[in-house]
Design goal:
With about 400 residues, this protein is an alpha+beta fold. It contains 11 helices and 19 strands. It has helices at about 30-40, 70-75, 105-120, 165-175, 195-200, 200-205, 215-225, 250-300, 310-325, 330-340, 370-380, and strands at about 5-10, 15-20, 25-30, 45-50, 55-60, 85-95, 100-105, 125-130, 140-145, 150-155, 155-160, 185, 210, 230, 235, 350-355, 360-365, 385-395, 400-405.
Length: about 400
């Protein structure tokens, strides 16, 4: 096994580190110099906080496999809070037309890497701590540190949460689980067990298996597990976020010194050859660019936001969707939904997204309580609509909920 050190920042310029070894692990805290001394000929793995990472399991068609890196971000655009251009997408294992996906804000990722570079720390992997929790088939893993709960329910599924919201979050996850877990392995101190049990549903209490391993013991086991356990034919190896624009750079300086003369001769010959054709292509490219700009400008005058792939086709789809040419249509569907929302006292609409392809509306509402949300959902289904609660949270005395509605 290659020497590996797991690291996470703890204060300015300091790191908590765990050096993995075949006979044992060494935990230490130190600055960048201390880390550099220990990191010679060693793989450094940076542990990113779970709160900053979004994990998804995405299904795709066969024809999309070769262009997943380009198409996946835009297929998830309507489900994400941030703009696609502001996010970095890292792909994991692909099997059975399913890919594991890790999403992080580009600015945040760049800041992590910039801080490391300024301190002379060169990492080889950057992974979400959530994916370092050990996971077994038909089992969930829960790591509790004070009021911070980390839950991993599958290879690329789970979340970080506060203790106060744990009961509701776990119940929602349990309601959507298929199949149900056979075991909930909880990592915590013994004196925390009664408090944790009080926040679990009766079903989860009956499947709890306790472990008093601390944070670093847990993540070390999860990293070394390295996908040995499988679920649905997939290996759940932690996804390295250093992909695409953030992939590790090759040792260009070293190579340049060795091949500098040959590269300069080749470059001169290439420039001479390309110079002849470049002039002709420049005129054609200028005309083509003006045409594309004019088309996109016209599209943007109607649809100011979102990705532009094929303006003419996209605009035609939007017009057809509003007319109701596919399914019930946005105007008719929203008219029916709006009448139900207006009848519910204290309920306000926070956001609305319409998916043309599925003729589906996604709402975020703020209600006085959870019963009001359930009343809205039930009233929508009485109208013959399909209304699904996809998530909810408590905000002070209010309940925020997300609904997916189809005609």
């Amino acid at each position: 096994m290659n020497a590996t050190i797991l690291i996470k920042p703890c204060g300015v310029g300091n790191y908590q580190c765990l050096q993995l070894g075949e006979t044992g692990h060494e935990h230490f805290v130190g600055d960048s110099e201390r880390l550099a001394d220990a990191a010679e000929n060693t793989t450094l793995v940076y542990i990113a906080p779970a709160e900053a990472i979004t994990l998804r399991t995405v299904h795709f068609d066969n024809h999309e496999k070769k262009i997943l890196q380009k198409t996946l971000p835009y297929s998830l655009e309507e489900d994400l809070v941030d703009d696609v251009e502001d996010l970095h997408f890292a792909l994991g294992a692909i099997a059975n037309n399913t890919v594991l996906l890790t999403i992080v804000n580009r600015q945040l990722l760049s800041q992590w890497l910039e801080d490391l570079e300024q301190q002379g720390v060169e990492i080889q992997q950057l992974v979400s701590e959530l994916q370092l929790l050990p996971v077994a088939n038909n089992s969930w893993s829960l790591l509790v540190e004070n009021d911070r709960w980390l839950l991993r329910s599958a290879g690329s599924e789970g979340f970080a949460m506060e203790a106060d919201s744990a009961s509701l979050a776990l119940q929602l996850l349990l309601d959507q689980a298929d199949p149900l877990p056979e075991q909930l392995r909880v990592y915590c101190q013994q004196d925390q067990q009664p408090s944790i049990l009080s926040r679990l549903s009766e079903m989860l209490r009956g499947m709890v298996e306790w472990s008093d391993d601390d944070y670093w013991q847990v993540v070390a086991d999860g990293y070394l597990q390295n996908g040995q356990n499988k679920q649905n034919g997939q290996q759940f190896i932690p996804i390295n976020l250093l992909q695409g624009d953030y992939a590790l750079s090759l040792p260009w300086r070293k190579w340049w010194k060795r091949w500098q003369i040959a590269a300069m001769l080749l470059l001169s010959a290439t420039v001479l050859q390309l110079g002849v054709t470049f002039g002709e292509m420049e005129v054609l490219e200028s005309d083509n660019l003006e045409l594309r700009v004019a088309i996109e400008r016209s599209y943007r005058s109607v649809v100011p936001k979102g990705a532009v792939m094929d303006p003419e086709r996209q605009l035609r789809r939007k017009v057809n969707a509003l007319k109701g040419s596919s399914g019930e249509g946005f105007v008719t569907l929203f008219d029916r939904i709006g009448k139900v929302l207006a009848k519910t006292e204290g309920l306000s609409l926070q956001s609305l997204n319409y998916t043309e392809k599925q003729a589906e509306i996604r709402l975020t509402v703020l209600a006085n309580d959870f019963d009001s949300v359930e009343t809205v959902r039930a009233n929508l289904e009485e109208l013959g609509l399909i209304a699904e609660l996809t998530g909810s949270s408590i905000e002070g005395s209010k309940t925020r909920a997300r609904l997916r509605i189809k005609g």
